[in-house]
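Input protein
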Amino acid sequence: MGVYLLRRTGVSLVVLLGISVLVFVLLHAISSSPGRAVLGVQASAASVAAFNHAHGYDRPLPLQYLSYLGSLLHGDLGYSYKLNQPVTALLGENAGRSAFLSAVSLVLSVVIAVPLGILQAVKRNTVIDNSLTGLAFVLYSIPAFFLGLVLIEFFSLRLNLLPSEASQATTVLGVVADPVSMILPVVTLTAVSVAAFSRYMRSSALDNLAQDYIRVARAKGLTERQVLSRHLLRNSCLPIITLVGLSLPALLAGNLIVETVFNFPGLGLLFFNSLQKEDYPVLMAYSLIVGVLTVLGNLVADVALAFTDPRIRLH
């Protein structure tokens, strides 16, 4: 396991290096003159040139990247001239709230999707299975922003039961203390994930129900509840473990949409506002976070699968 982790860590670092190059080049291609984006279109050419020279933006692109990479290695993600704050500080202010929204949604998604998938497999081709399958397809097909707007229209504007805006608290504890305002954002983010997870869980459970070990367990006289909980559940959850790991960056992307719709002050809303303001240091930092989460999610999923399923060998 130690050798595997070291090898995977090395590969992950190479991948992250490639991501940093790609993000840097793409954003530079969008705006080769950060001075113009910072100072505005009304700034004189001399002012823009002076700004670019003072911050090294007039140097060759490889030298700019090496400087950027050196700053990254020292934990410096740059400076937001639009918000007049270090990017690290901005991320620190918003990361906790986004992490809370992602964690709650992910836990609820797994808790709901796993039993639903098993229920559909056990009741396959029945009214229950067909109804849940249809609902899952509908939820999976609806864009998150549209689902959020529908929930706001119905529960906030028509029934006046829930606030249309998420909690505006500046701390995670403040968000936790205001659970009512988080119901609609959490439901929106959870619904899409449940639709995807339950489909994979149903397919996996159906495959395992046809395996010999299930027949042997039933032949031994175990009750259906014991067969499902002791044997079917663990083996059927293997795809969910992989999906949970791969869902880390997807949840962050989902947060972008949900946080924008519900005006929730997290990383997603920060990215959206930075995109409108052309705040490139923030955009680069956010893109790198997505890359880190993608690599980390893959690594966590692989290791978790190895511990869960003894048939898997790490090479």
Summary: The chain has a mean pLDDT of 83.
